[in-house]
Amino acid sequence: MASILDYCDGVARTDFAPGTTLLAEGESSGRLYVLSSGSVEVLRGETRVAVIADPGSVFGEMSVLLGLPHTATVRAASPVAAFVFEDAEAFLKSRPEIAFFLGRLLAQRLNAATTYLVDLKRQFEGHGNHLGMVGEVLESLIHQQHEEFTLGPEQAADPRL
User: Fold this and answer.
1) Which of 7, 84, 104, 141 is spaced 20 to 30 Å from 93 by Cα?
2) Dihedral through CA 89, CA 94, CA 98, CA 99, nearest 10?
3) Could you tell me which of 22, 58, 18, 65 has the C-alpha nearest to residue 38?
4) How far apart (Å, rounded) are the C-alpha atoms in residues 67 and 90?
């Protein structure tokens, strides 16, 4: 099975010193990073959410796919080497297999979050505090569907679609 790192051949690897911010929460960069080596910390506000050191880990995908500012800050926790795709949207459109990989990755994350929320709902369903709202959060995750679907420019001209 191919790794996302296999698709980075020919892309310049960039080195980052510890403490360097790769993505800043609330900003839009249009970039996608694929970790080659080192570790990064993911922060929401001042809260450290995770430290990631797995080669092939991807950062910036949510912002690119949603067309929204970054939802977290990603900062080098050690010396880091990463492949940087400056125009991530164009890269993903040109490599549908990578877009599919990211879709699967995001679906796995959503499944994990939903499973956790279902467990919380079971535990705190009868409580009147904020944990009793877990059902509303789950419902919004499941029913948040967009009616619109926009083809990319290359498919819009295809008469079969």
Assistant:
1) 141
2) 50
3) 18
4) 13
Q: What number of helices (H) and strands (E) belong to the chain?
A: 5, 8
Both tokens of residue 156? Answer: 């819009």
115-146 confidence digits (pLDDT tens): 888 887 777 766 666 666 666 666 665 655 55
Query: Please, which residues have CB within 8 angstroms of residue 16's CB and are 6 or more apart in sequence?
Result: 22, 38, 76, 79, 80, 81, 82
Tens digit of pLDDT for each residue in 54-82? 999 999 999 999 899 999 999 999 999 99
Return all residues near 154 (Cβ < 8 A) that are at least 6 apart: 93
User: Is residue 41 within 8 Å of residue 50, measured between CB atoms?
Assistant: yes
Q: Are 27 and 70 in contact (CB under 8 A)?
A: yes
Q: Please give the single-letter amino acid code of residue 119.
A: D
